[in-house]
Design brief:
Largest sheet: 5 strands, antiparallel
Structural class: mainly beta
Shape: globular
Radius of gyration: 22 Å
Strand content: 35-45%
Distance between the termini: 12 Å
Length: 406
């Protein structure tokens, strides 16, 4: 049938289909397989669905939570609308580790980066597209390990290189100096490029005088760069960025009039709509407060603005934001609620993170390892991807065109 259709018409038709149907089109014939797995079609599909979701208010959001009672991680994609209905519940991608607690590094263009580094040095890194059931395991970053270099502290970033249209994972390792707790700078830096399936050392490009504050610190990908909270040699807090395209570090100073350290529970970077933001939690007399700062113009430190502040009597954590700008808050009892600017605006969403189970980490600063929420666009990235032998890949059977008609 496709022989009678112009290529641009065929592309336009297939790109409008549901994502699982498009994946099944790969089995029709080799020409369709080449079409739907090609980078041009995957980009066209992503752009079309992102634009359609924005125009029709059909955005999706990924929510990941973990229960210490059942030792179970839950991945769910919800509809980011007024009802916040469940769009689909995702099966755990690792058949050999059914109850393992993997940390979400980040979500970008439909790919989720996962790591099992919560309790050990020798972490495994994975890229997962849950809607087409495609998972790849990255080769181990063997250049810097506990066996080769001794104790260290590390952080991981994940994002998209808009210059080469490639996905990258950056690993920043601070070695302990002379066996003490003092971290040695500059760190060792390695980067994984998805198109090649290999790691390479880029630590020589920057003499980085900053230390990312927390072990396995959360990152956020905004404006083509990964960001973390870090400190300089004077112990002054700042935001460290890594540009995925230019593969270079930079710094962004925090708002000059942020709250002090008294009662400070946590400060972390986040994405507010398409802007870089900061979330600070403070302990107050009658509960806890949360303040959200937004960098209105990226790169202009004077454009920081306090978007809103809200207080609650119970323990809560801001885990992310909806497309509308409303904050998503998780309570220690496992509920997900929505809050825009004032306490009386709190709305309980029809979304329970876990039934009869508390979220671990609320009594310390480890909660961000167990909770994650971010926008999720439907994507065909990883469809038909093949790599060198160093990368293992688990794919859905519908992705193989062998045996189909040519």
């Amino acid at each position: 049938m496709s022989d009678f259709l112009p290529p641009d018409v065929l592309i336009d038709i297939i790109a409008r289909l549901p994502i699982k149907t498009i994946a099944q089109c790969a089995c029709v014939c080799k020409s369709w397989y080449s079409l739907v797995t090609g980078p041009s079609f995957i980009t066209t599909h992503l752009n079309r669905h992102t634009l359609s979701a924005n125009n029709n208010n059909n955005q999706l959001i990924l929510v990941r939570s973990y229960s210490d009672c059942s030792s179970e991680a839950r991945y769910t994609i919800g509809c980011d609308n007024k009802k916040f209905r469940e769009y689909t519940k995702l099966g755990f991608p690792f058949k050999s580790f059914p109850n393992k607690n993997f940390r979400v590094i980040g979500c970008c263009n439909g790919l989720i980066c996962l790591s099992d580094d919560l309790s050990k040095y020798t972490e495994d890194l994975h890229l997962w597209n849950p809607l087409i059931q495609n998972l790849i395991t990255l080769p181990a970053p063997v250049r810097v390990t506990f066996q080769s270099h001794g104790p260290f502290m590390h952080s991981i970033g994940f994002g998209f290189d808009p210059l080469t249209h490639d996905f990258k994972v950056v690993r920043i390792v601070y070695l302990q100096q002379d066996g003490s707790t003092v971290l040695k700078t500059p760190p060792e830096v390695d980067i994984f490029t998805l198109s090649t399936g290999t790691w390479r050392n880029i630590g020589h490009l920057d003499l980085l005088p900053y230390v990312i504050e927390k072990e396995r610190a959360p990152q956020v990908y905004v404006k083509g760069a990964a960001h973390w909270i870090a400190t300089d040699t004077r112990d002054q807090s700042l935001i460290l960025s890594f540009n995925m395209g230019y593969e270079a570090f930079d710094k962004i100073m925090m708002p000059a009039n942020m709250g002090g350290k008294e009662g400070l529970l946590d400060v972390r970077v986040a994405k507010f709509q398409e802007s870089l933001s900061l979330i600070e939690h403070h302990s107050i007399q009658n509960g806890e407060s949360c303040c959200v700062w937004v960098l209105e113009e990226y790169g202009a430190e004077e454009s920081w603005s306090k978007r809103f502040t809200f207080q609650m009597r119970d323990r809560f954590r801001c885990v992310g934001f909806r497309k509308s700008g409303e904050a998503l808050l998780a309570t220690s009892e496992g509920f997900l609620i929505c809050n825009h600017s004032k306490e009386e605006d709190v709305v309980f969403l029809k979304f329970k993170l876990f039934v009869n189970s508390r979220i671990p980490g609320f009594l310390d600063d480890l909660w961000y390892k167990n909770l994650f929420a971010d926008a999720y666009p439907e994507s065909l990235v990883l469809l038909g991807t093949k790599f060198c032998d160093a990368v293992t890949c688990e794919v859905s059977p519908v992705l193989h065109p062998e045996g189909s008609g040519a």
